[in-house]
Automatic annotation (TrEMBL), chain B:
SUF system FeS cluster assembly SufBD N-terminal domain mapped to chain residues: 138-205
Domain SUF system FeS cluster assembly SufBD core, residue spans: 208-442
Sequence similarity: Belongs to the iron-sulfur cluster assembly SufBD family.
Gene that this sequence comes from: sufB
Name of the protein described by the UniProt record: Fe-S cluster assembly protein SufB
Length: 443, 471
């Protein structure tokens, strides 16, 4: 079916959206239909747009070739988990709750009884639509990632199959992270999932979202939309670990809305996939809001990473600090585009932004655009960006202590990237990421 | 320190650049840009056929390119392009003796202090009024050494081979919409040639003056610095204030041959309704150094990014830029360095001040091509905001393809520190004086690189701009 509208294909079209809506409440069906209209009305992003300057979709993504991922319910049978999924889960330490998705369908969910009895909700998004519409309807694809945000946001809002809903009531503090593991196995398909996290006033929660897959022969698309909302004084840590196989096109659109005096920290670790595009927009909406935004990427072969971030200071006296670091080997390539926007009236803003890149090979490439737009005069803002090679002095020092070159290089790279993780020392995450990087360093 | 002391010793007239002269010209084209206008300009100049072809091709390129959507707001300019005069000839011939310059033009430049400056410190002076160079002179000792400092038209006429070899090679017509426009309608500007090994100790200088309302000035400057030579060129621009927009879109091409050293200094102080869109670029060869010193005050919108293409091993590029945006002004300035050879180094230091509803944007590119082993670049931006309605942006593009390179960018934004203000005011200074002093301290690293007269002028201009900045 050719319609002439960019991005409408044999698998991705209005009929598919209608099929997804079957059995859903009226409001959701209408929301999907609206999102689809927005999708149709928007052109496919191209490199003439600043935000897509370094990622040429015509070269990297062939929507026409994709089918829509099947999302049939499966029995929860851990013994049938593919090895990569089983290993990933086995590495996880204690958790407040778990949720596992295979090929876009939730196969497992559990939450500690004591937390459930305090009103914490962790469940598949589809189920939450039915059981907690009063919590889901106001926030889903409205406040944080509405379809109007862009072509991919609209596509996800129209076609999401399932996802995660986490709700933490006022004053409830979780002492262990919520862990979500997503696995994609079906090749040549497109998967759309969504996450909605609402943390009420003074609550506290950490959330680790990991996505893994095997390598694919045919291009496979994993699209994620993540909406995180913190109310006054809440504290939330959102961590995303992307360790997909080659052949994957990973696309994630994240937005965090930080209320008064809340803390909303994020960590994006990008290690896998052939192409990985993460859009993270942090809005600091209440005075005293605070956001640490961390990112880490390590590329090998011809991997392509594109991180696009923004720090929107809309209220006075808020603070944000972004640190993205990446190492690039072989022919891999990374682009970072970050912007700090201090809106009118957001006085006493403290905002920082740093992107550092390490090129490990002759053929790697790093592009960096750390931008500032400042419309208030009583602010402290700075940004920095560097691209360089391994520190020779450091290497020499280690080698003079008897380390072989390869090992010395590994240590320096781990030390370089380790700075990011040391700022968010979440149980198990640091070890997991370190192991994954070491594995890549060994090639 | 009372305020009159701050100003003492700076004998610049407050209203120096605001005056305008009665419009006088011997020829001008119809308003708007067309093939007819381009042909008329070429005919007026009695150009060789290849130049007419070059202009017409550039016009085609200009027409095929969309208006840039990044940078400042060009919508008003777009609407008024049809009303702008693309060529105004103020007199029939260029003078080599100051006494022969027509009185009205002479008076203008005398008010700007040009004859005095020439006598005192300069090796040569060019003065452009509207579209044409009206005066050019070069001290004899330099002429004897083979230095050429001419209007661009005379450069084409008198040195055709040299001219054709370099013209349009550093900034091709197709580089951007405004370089295409300039290539189609260029008029005036300088042609400079510094022979091998000649070290010019005192600067060459050009002044550009737009007097007529709704006038576009499209000067074109071509500078060739031969091996091991050394020179400094200074450019100053002014225009009176009119109620309708004026337009300046120059192209400056510089070739710095191996081992040469060249510095280009611009202090632009256009009137507040001038669109100032300039392409200035240097091609820097082996172990040569290019320095841009770029000061932008005035104009409604400036889009200007002096650039160094480091194409020879060990080439060095240095860009120092300062922007001052007052009410209703947008300075979209910065710098561009392209490392295309091994062991090339560069540095960009940019300082901006935004006052009232002024907006300063730094836009820069640092590009290191694969193979530019050992490239090093450092970019530093500092923005100072004076009022809560001021705005500043920083858009640095960093594109690195070579592992064995080292590239850094840092930027900070701050307001004038309350503690600094308090300290100075507690010593008896008014808030306005204190603010002016802090601002001067902020731009000092750049001002001290300027020849004395320019540093004084820059400070004075900043002081004038700062008046009334404290509510």
């Amino acid at each position: 079916m050719t319609t002439g509208i960019e991005g409408v294909t044999e698998a991705i079209n209005r009929a598919a959206v209608e099929a997804r809506s079957e059995g859903e409440p009226q409001w959701l069906a209408e929301r999907r239909a609206h999102a689809w209209s927005v999708y149709e009305s928007l052109p496919m992003p191209n490199t003439r747009l600043e935000e897509w300057r370094y990622t040429d979709l015509r070269r990297h993504l062939d929507l026409d070739a994709l089918k829509l991922g099947s999302v049939e319910a499966r029995p929860d049978d851990p013994s049938s988990y593919p090895a990569v999924l089983a290993d990933t889960i086995a590495e996880d330490r204690e958790a407040a709750g778990h949720l596992v998705l295979m090929d876009g369908a939730v196969v497992h969910v559990d939450i500690r009884d004591d937390l459930a009895s305090l009103g914490v909700v962790l469940m598949p998004l589809r189920q939450a639509v039915r059981e907690h519409p009063e919590l889901v309807e106001p926030h889903l694809a409205t406040e944080a990632v509405p379809p109007e945000e862009g072509k991919f946001a609209a596509l996800n809002a129209a076609l999401w199959s399932d996802g995660v809903f986490l709700y933490v009531p006022r004053g409830v503090r979780l002492d262990a992270p919520v862990r979500v593991t997503r696995w994609i196995g079906e090749e040549g398909a497109a998967f759309f999932s969504r996450t909605l996290i609402v943390a009420e006033a003074t609550s506290q929660v950490s959330y680790v979202d990991e996505i893994v897959s095997s390598d694919f022969e045919a291009q496979t698309l994993a699209s994620a939309a993540v909406e995180v909302i913190t109310r006054n004084g809440a504290q939330v840590q959102y961590v995303s670990l992307q360790r997909m196989g080659r052949g994957a096109f990973y696309q994630s659109q994240q937005r965090t809305l930080a209320g008064r005096d809340s803390t909303l920290d994020t960590l994006n670790v990008s290690l896998g996939a052939s192409v990985s595009r993460v859009d993270l927009n942090a809005r600091l909406m209440g005075p005293g809001a605070n956001s640490d935004m961390l990112g880490l990427y390590f590329g090998a072969d011809d991997q392509h990473f594109d991180h696009n971030t923004s720090q929107d200071h809309e209220a006075p006296a808020a603070r944000s600090d972004l640190l993205y670091k990446g190492a690039l080997d072989d022919h891999s390539r990374a682009a970072f585009r970050g912007i700090i926007r201090v809106h009118k009236g957001a006085q006493q803003t403290d905002a920082y932004q740093t992107n550092r890149n390490l090129l490990l090979s002759e053929h790697a490439r790093a592009d960096s655009l750390p931008n500032l737009e400042i419309e208030a005069d009583d602010v402290k803002c700075s940004h920095g960006s560097t691209v360089g090679q391994l520190d020779d002095d450091l290497l020499f020092y280690l080698m003079s202590r008897g380390l072989p070159r390869a090992k010395a290089e590994r240590l320096v790279v781990l030390g370089f990237l380790g700075e990011v993780m040391s700022r968010l020392p979440l149980g198990g995450v640091v070890e997991k990421v370190t192991r994954a990087i070491e594995q890549k360093l060994r090639g | 320190m009372p305020q009159n002391e701050v100003i003492q010793g700076l004998d610049l007239d407050v209203d120096k650049y605001g005056f305008s002269d009665e419009e006088q010209h011997v020829f001008r084209t119809q308003p708007g840009l067309s093939e007819e206008v381009v042909r008329q300009i070429s005919a007026q100049k009695g150009e060789p056929e290849w130049m007419l072809e070059f202009r017409l091709e550039a016009l085609r390129i200009y027409e095929s390119k969309p208006m840039p959507t990044w940078g400042g707001d060009l919508s008003t300019l777009e609407e008024t392009l049809d009303e702008i005069y693309f060529y105004v000839r103020p007199q029939d011939r260029m003078e080599r003796s100051w006494d022969d310059v027509p009185d009205n033009i002479k008076t203008t430049f005398e008010k700007l202090g040009i004859p005095e400056a020439e006598q005192k410190v300069l090796a040569g002076v060019g003065a452009q009024y509207e579209s044409e160079m009206v005066y050019h002179s070069l001290k004899k000792e330099w002429e004897d050494k083979g230095v050429i400092f001419d209007s661009i038209e005379d450069g084409l006429k008198n040195h055709p081979e040299l001219f054709r070899k370099y013209f349009g090679t550093v900034v091709p017509s197709a580089d951007n919409k405004f370089s295409a426009m300039n290539s189609a309608v260029w008029s005036g500007g300088s042609f400079v040639y510094i022979p091998k090994g000649v070290q010019l100790e005192t600067p060459l200088q050009a002044y550009f003056r737009v007097n007529q309302e709704r006038m576009g000035q499209f000067e074109r400057t071509l500078i060739i610095v031969e091996e091991g030579a050394r020179a400094h060129y200074i450019e100053g621009c002014t225009a009176p204030t009119y109620s309708t927009e004026s337009f300046h879109s120059g192209v400056i091409e510089i070739v710095v041959n191996p081992g040469a050293h060249f510095r280009y200094t611009t202090i632009q102080n256009w009137s507040n309704n001038m669109y100032n869109l300039v392409t200035q670029r240097a091609l820097v060869h082996e172990h040569a150094t290019m320095e841009w010193l770029d000061g932008n005050l005035g104009s409604k919108l400036t889009m200007k990014y002096p650039s160094c293409y480091l194409v020879g091993e060990g080439a060095h590029g240095n860009i120092l830029s300062i922007a001052y945006s007052g009410d209703g002004q947008h300075q979209d300035t910065g710098g561009k360095v392209v490392h295309a050879a091994p062991h090339t180094t560069s540095s960009i230091v940019s300082k901006s001040i935004s006052k009232g509803t002024g907006r300063s944007s730094y836009r820069g590119l640092c590009k290191v091509y694969d193979g530019a082993v050992g490239a090093k670049s450092n970019v530093e931006c500092d923005a100072l905001l004076i009022n809560e309605t001021s705005r500043t942006d920083t858009y640095p593009y960093i594109e690195i393809e070579e592992k064995r390179s080292n590239i850094g960018h840092e930027a900070t934004v701050s307001k004038v520190g309350d503690e600094q203000l308090f300290y100075l005011m507690s010593r008896g200074m008014s808030e306005e004086e204190a603010m002016a002093l802090i601002v001067r301290g902020f731009i000092e690293p750049i001002a001290k690189q300027l020849p004395l007269e320019y540093a004084v002028e820059l400070n004075r201009l900043i002081e004038l701009e700062m008046e009334g900045s404290v509510g």
